[in-house]
Specification:
Elements (H helix, E strand, L loop, with lengths): L4 E7 L6 E6 L19 E2 L2 E6 L4 E8 L18 E13 L2 E13 L47 H4 L35 H4 L60 E2 L5 E2 L10 E8 L13 E2 L5 E2 L2 E6 L7 E4 L9 E15 L2 E15 L2 E13 L22 E2 L9 E6 L10 E4 L6 E10 L4 H13 L2 E2 L2 E3 L12 E6 L15 E21 L2 E19 L10 E14 L10 H8 L25 H21 L2 H8 L1
Parallel strand pairs: 13-16, 15-17, 24-26, 25-27
Antiparallel strand pairs: 1-5, 2-6, 3-4, 4-5, 6-7, 8-9, 10-17, 11-12, 14-17, 15-16, 18-23, 19-20, 19-22, 21-27, 23-24, 25-26
Length: 653
């Protein structure tokens, strides 16, 4: 040991075990260790022995009680020389008079000293460790003292090295800093040496070794390791060039501004970043147990020019909770836990060019009780600063994915129209279903359930279903672009309506059966990319078609047919079809001929007629496939010869 304290551990049950310490157990004449006995105590000279018992392990601590300061003139209880303590200790663990374990300690402790000389300004030159080791004995960690098990430490005397000569550190840490490498011709360390090793081995001295990573001579280059980390955002203190479409919005703390959004799996993610110019409207289900508060509304937002703006927050209270509480579990307890939570949050970002000018937030609060299921609503809307009278004029006139499709009723005095699909709630009945707008580029499928009586008249049922489907489309035209003007008819395309097919099949007065019910509404929107604005594609709607699919409704009888009501599901689907902006070039004659031999476009592939006799065929050994191929060729040749007229004449002769 080289310090005033050393710790060790005794493994095993320490109950009934006596620990003792003996000072200078080495015989002065012979130099051998004296025979240890169990009659010692826990104090010997300036040394103390402390034992901390444990379950199966006991901590043994040996500490020095004297001072380690160098002696000043006329001072006592100090160190007369820098090497202050040189003693040999022995720690014994005995149960009665039987020795269980012993520990030998060689103590060489130097006195504490402080530097009082002049400091030199000459810097120590540290060699490049890629080419030369910093030290020839890495295990020499203590200056002026012998490190145990470090056989290359020149400060270890031969007597000390005898204590650990059989347990020296190996490898680089033990002083072997230039081991022979496998490519060296004189090295035989490889377990399996290939036959070509003598021709490609390296003739070099051990001073020129690649063990540290490089040779002494030769060009070196830093490895280009690809990074899989997200690049850090520009610091607010540095110049910020503004947002581009799709960039995450940054807060004052240089973090993402997050609002709960739906993932690809349909679940809500609470820490989803808000993308610039990407509006959305999501609904998330939660209860009181799993409810979590979102990002605080006092967070300031980076405008895009390293400036920060505060959110304008308006709080409102929900009185009618029926639109948000979709399910309630029956609780039998007398007291129900309730808490004020956020029912909905509506964000409006006012933007101009690449910067955010203003952020308005409306927060709806309400009480949520234990056992209730809450449908939270989160909407984010980006409005241009150039908007006038509620009509938004975008710099990119084309549609962007996720934006609502603009609809108009140009035959009415108020041209404002709507194109929606259902947003079911509760039991999914059509009577309680709400609407949500059709978003551009997002294929959707929704529906609701209509209650139908067994005595329902089929004509009235068809009219009722058609009325509910037509309520989704309160428009006659659809805007070609997102900034279509109501005053310009060329900015709109008329909706093509296909009436439902009716077969005029009579049910013969049967109750509970109605054919040709237009239960499915199909909305097909054809669009094309007609250009780009600042690198963002400009997409334009070319045509809109609405059609109906009919079904046969039949009353479903339950147990005992006691219920006279049945259910009819009605659905609405939206499909976006992209077509090229320009008609494709006609197919040339060469392309038609080539298509006949294209194996990817035809079931019969003539170029692969001889594929079984090639080496690419792995269904059976090549020799067998070649033999079968030659046999088949021989049979074909034989059939051709026998079918020749001269062969029959020769055969008759």
């Amino acid at each position: 040991m080289s310090g005033p304290r050393v710790n060790s551990f005794f493994l095993g049950n320490s109950s009934g075990v006596n620990f003792s310490i003996i000072l200078s157990p080495r015989d002065a004449e012979t130099g051998k260790l004296q025979l240890a006995n169990c009659s010692g105590s826990k104090r010997a000279g300036d040394w103390n022995l402390d034992v901390t018992p444990g379950v199966n392990t006991s901590k043994v601590t040996v500490s020095l009680t004297r001072a380690l300061e160098l002696c000043l003139p006329n001072a006592t209880e100090c160190c007369p020389s820098p090497l202050c303590v040189v003693e040999t200790l022995q720690v014994l663990a005995c149960r009665g008079s039987v020795m269980l374990a012993q520990l030998l300690i060689q103590a060489e402790i130097f006195a504490n000293s402080s530097f009082t000389g002049n400091v030199s300004e000459n810097a120590t030159i540290i060699p490049n460790q890629a080419f030369k080791p910093l030290g020839s004995c890495p295990c020499n960690l203590t200056a002026g003292a012998c490190d145990v098990r470090c056989c290359c430490d020149l400060e270890c005397t031969p007597d000390l090295q005898q204590l650990f000569s059989g347990s020296c550190f190996t490898g680089v840490f033990g002083g072997d800093v230039n081991p022979p490498f496998d490519q060296l011709c004189s090295s035989q360390s490889m377990e399996y040496t290939p036959e070509w090793f003598p021709f490609l081995c390296v003739q070099s001295s051990l001073d020129n070794t690649p063990f540290l990573g490089y040779f002494y001579h030769g060009s070196t280059s830093a490895p280009q390791v690809p990074s899989f980390k997200i690049p850090p955002q520009t610091s607010p203190g540095k110049p910020f060039t503004g947002y581009r479409e799709g960039d995450p919005i940054i807060t004052e703390e240089d973090e993402y501004f997050t609002v709960p959004q739906q993932s690809m799996a349909g679940q809500c993610v609470g820490n989803a970043p808000v993308a610039y110019l990407h509006s959305f409207d999501v609904k998330c289900l939660t209860n009181l147990e799993s409810y979590k508060e979102g990002l605080p509304h006092d967070v300031r937002i980076n405008t895009g020019t390293a400036d920060f703006i505060q959110q304008n927050v308006l709080y409102r209270t929900i009185t009618d909770r029926g639109k948000f509480i979709t399910e309630s579990e029956s609780l039998h307890g007398a007291e129900v836990l309730c808490q004020n939570v956020t029912f909905a949050e509506h964000y409006k970002f006012i933007w101009k060019d690449k910067n955010i000018q203003q952020v308005n937030v409306t927060v709806f609060l309400g009480r949520l009780c234990d056992g209730e299921i809450l449908t939270q609503t989160f909407t984010v809307e980006f409005l241009s600063l150039k908007s006038t009278n509620g009509e938004e004029l975008f710099e990119n006139p084309g549609y962007q994915v996720g934006k609502p499709v603009r609809a108009a009723n140009l035959n009415a005095s108020d041209p404002l129209g709507s194109l929606n699909i259902w947003q079911p709630a509760g039991r999914g009945l059509c009577a309680s279903a709400t609407y949500r707008p059709v978003l551009f580029g997002v294929d959707s499928y929704s529906g609701c359930i209509l209650e139908v009586d067994i005595n329902e008249d089929c004509s009235l049922l068809r009219g009722n279903v058609t009325e509910k489907l037509n309520a989704l489309i309160e428009a006659t035209h659809i805007g070609k672009r997102d900034n279509s003007s109501y005053s310009d008819l060329n900015d709109w395309v008329e909706i093509i309506r296909l009436d439902p097919f009716s077969s005029n099949v009579s049910t013969g007065g049967l109750k509970g059966i109605c054919p040709d019910i237009p239960a499915n509404l199909n909305i097909r929107i054809i669009f094309a990319k007609v250009g780009a604005v600042q690198g963002v594609p400009q997409q334009q709607i070319l045509a809109v078609q609405i059609s109906y699919s009919t079904v046969l409704w039949q009353f479903q009888c339950g147990l005992g047919c006691r219920n006279t009501l049945s259910f009819l599901p009605i659905t609405a689907s939206v499909q976006f079809i992209e077509v090229p902006a320009q008609p494709p070039l006609p197919v040339t004659r060469y392309q038609k001929i080539y298509a006949e031999f294209d194996c990817s476009q035809n079931e019969v592939c003539w170029p692969q007629l001889l594929y079984p006799v090639t080496r690419f065929y792995t269904g059976e050994p090549y020799s067998q496939s070649l033999a079968k191929g030659l046999l088949l060729a021989f049979l074909v040749l034989l059939a051709a010869i026998m079918s020749n007229p001269w062969f029959s004449k020769l055969w008759n002769r």
